[in-house]
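For the sake of transparency, this paper describes our internal protein records without simplification. Because each token names a local backbone shape, the row as a whole describes the fold. One such record is reproduced below, unchanged from the form in which we store it.
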Amino acid sequence: MPSLLSSRSAVADSDRLTFAGLLGGIVMLGLALQVFVLVQTPSRTSELKQLIALIPIVVGVLTYVRHRPATPDWEIGAVAVWGVLAQWIASAVWFIVGPAFTGGPSLSAALLSGASQFRAAELLRFLGTVAVFAGFYTVAASRRDRLVGGMIALLAVPVVIVVIYTII
């Protein structure tokens, strides 16, 4: 039997528990890396931040392949590239409009809490991003027979990420 990560059919044919375990393991790895990045100095973790940004995309692509196993390779590549672009768009928009929604950070609150509010917000944003990618990529794969519905689901990813960031 092929390993779970070496074949698309293995991802599509695996039972729900195995697939959920795979996704859960990837998300837990991402959370562990995110916690490590939050407690380390920024100069030592720049490469890890790039790796952490790929984890929601990997989860999204795996869910896309799970629900659309006969997808051509170019489409999987396009979906992955769109994930990178969607995160970049969401980050750029959040950089511009984020301060208007969150207001100025209170230095006294950060000092009193030991920056735990900021760390909790970063972890929740990571989990929210993973949930957005998994959910919307699943919808896009399920709506493959309706091209417009699938495209709208994919195009909504950066918008919903910004909304999640605003809520958190």
Observations:
- The chain is about 80% helix and 0% strand.
- The helical segments are 8-13, 16-39, 46-67, 73-102, 107-113, 116-142, 147-155, 157-167.
- Residues 8-167 form one domain.
